[in-house]
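quick one before i forget lol
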Amino acid sequence: MKIAGRPIGRDHAPYLIAELSANHNGSLERALNIVRAAKEAGADAVKLQTYRPDTITLDSDRPEFMIHGGLWDGKRLYDLYQWAHMPWEWHAPLFALGKQLGITVFSSPFDFTAIDLLAELDAPAYKIASFEAIDLPLIRYAAETGKPLIISTGMANEREIAAALETAHKHGCGEVALLHCVSGYPAPAAEYHLATIADMRQRFGVEVGLSDHTLGSATAIAATAVGATLIEKHFTLRRADGGPDSAFSMEPEELAQLAQDTRTAWSAIGAPRYSLSASEQHNIQFRRSLYLVKAVSAGERLTSEHVRSVRPGLGLPPADFDRVVNAVARRALAANTPLSWDDLQANPAE
């Protein structure tokens, strides 16, 4: 899988997505600065969200349109999305800045008109949010663009994930990735069950990453270790500035550390290996070996009092201890001498 030419897979460091979401706080200049900060921190991409309040919910005061609990307790859905949405006229300058800086910008569309807007901007990929993963007509419309899709799977069961993938593939999308996700804001790390990542890869046969709503970076680093090839984190300039997503978003220094740590974790995975590594070459001499600790004459038989396993490793291996004891010295040997079979004759009885 590739997005804007960047390969995504187990042979590459995780594709790090900085989720701008609602952290623009109503300012285009702040949104542009978030893109700049994401690039400087080492992210591969910045993801936007493309909707209007009236394309995602209804302007209603009915009880089911109220939020109960969590960060946005007591708000109407319409008011939340009015507060959080990004004006559509901001998309073009954000995409342009991304091209100028060399960082990919793409978005989560929430209806057909959003996909149309993003298609006009030549978005290199589309992200289907967890809450829309069951919206098969939306997935179909996005798939028909032929661009790669990333589908978050928060709240989705196996049947729903399979249906989303089938729809994407059936309607022209050859490159799809899934993001394992818990749709809590923030989400407890213990609810993530990162073993699901490897199971998803085996079960569905696509690239699998992590949409991480936990606090801190530990979950994302652990996900890298179990095979996540994409990592998505909400990103802001300063949590203290507030905003709908600020409480569970990373700041620039934290994202930079995450970029470094996930790439280090990926490079540490490697492949099964039991041979000497380059950094070990110098230290192999300091392993244990058998040394003579008591002088012997030619023809003298060695006992356990003559021989010890010590560092450095210039003598016989400690595994030869039982053979060395009772061996005969071929010549006179001084104390503190590393033992060699050139110096010894094994016990004839052996």
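fyi The first helix runs from residue 28 to 41.
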